[in-house]
Recover the amino acids of this structure.
């Protein structure tokens, strides 16, 4: 009676099989992550398109951009009022800590003035996930001013870019010259209240410069976009939360242009 011999796998064959499985698994993970990110981008774009209907109603009401570049709202303190610019930027300050130096709540301020001009906006958000509608502080100096912001699918606030404040200003890190470069002087703005005016400087740069480490900071201040035809637009900073990495930013139906100085930077 003959016994059939069973040949065992060699170590090299096992390693080859394991390698193939690892490659297929990594491909599957990459494809899966791509699908998830694509879904999040689509959902964020849908939210931006809802915001564009608010802008369309402002247009239909005959309101010019100059009428919603800032809004005046009552603060919590006696006699307090703030005129808050709808600027996609952040206050110029010492250092660029992402947690401490938050971007200006540009969308919250835009929605504040839109509500004053065209009425209650709550019905607009009926088809949106309640988790992306956030009540929070959108400005103030001493007495907080609160309002509504919409956030993207990565948990960051969607931004509004007003034509009065578009394009880059302040200093940014140039990867071509490996140096600090000035775009335009810092923008100076005012928060007004019943006790007088407080003046602040804003920066809106593709990349801020960190003098302590002599390199570009990991997160930019804004995308530096220029509004097409002088029309406000909205955007999300994308999965990395960095508006300066424009290739993964999410826009609605409007795609901005970039200042000449940084148009070729990624």
């Amino acid at each position: 009676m003959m016994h059939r011999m069973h040949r065992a796998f060699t170590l090299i064959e096992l390693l080859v099989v394991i390698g193939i499985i690892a490659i297929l698994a990594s491909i599957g993970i990459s494809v899966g992550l791509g699908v998830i990110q694509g879904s999040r981008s689509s959902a964020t774009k849908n939210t931006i398109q809802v915001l564009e209907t608010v802008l369309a109603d402002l247009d239909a009401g005959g309101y010019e951009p100059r009428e919603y570049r800032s809004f005046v709202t009552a603060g919590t303190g006696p006699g307090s009022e703030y005129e808050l610019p709808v600027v996609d930027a952040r206050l110029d300050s010492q250092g660029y800590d992402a947690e401490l130096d938050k971007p200006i709540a540009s969308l919250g301020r835009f929605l504040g003035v839109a509500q004053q001009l065209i009425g209650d906006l709550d019905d607009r958000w009926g088809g949106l996930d309640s988790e992306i509608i956030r009540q929070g502080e959108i400005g103030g100096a001493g007495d907080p001013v609160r309002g509504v912001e919409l956030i993207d699918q990565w948990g960051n606030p969607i931004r509004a870019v007003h034509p009065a404040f578009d394009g880059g200003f302040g200093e940014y890190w140039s990867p071509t010259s490996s140096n600090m470069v000035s775009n335009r002087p810092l923008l100076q703005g005012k928060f007004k209240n019943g006790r007088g005016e407080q003046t602040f400087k804003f920066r809106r740069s593709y990349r801020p410069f960190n003098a302590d480490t002599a390199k570009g900071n990991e997160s930019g201040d804004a995308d530096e976009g220029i509004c097409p035809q002088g029309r406000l637009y909205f955007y999300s900073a994308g999965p990395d939360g960095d508006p300066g990495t424009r290739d993964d930013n999410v826009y609605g139906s409007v795609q901005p242009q970039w200042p000449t100085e940084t148009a070729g930077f990624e």
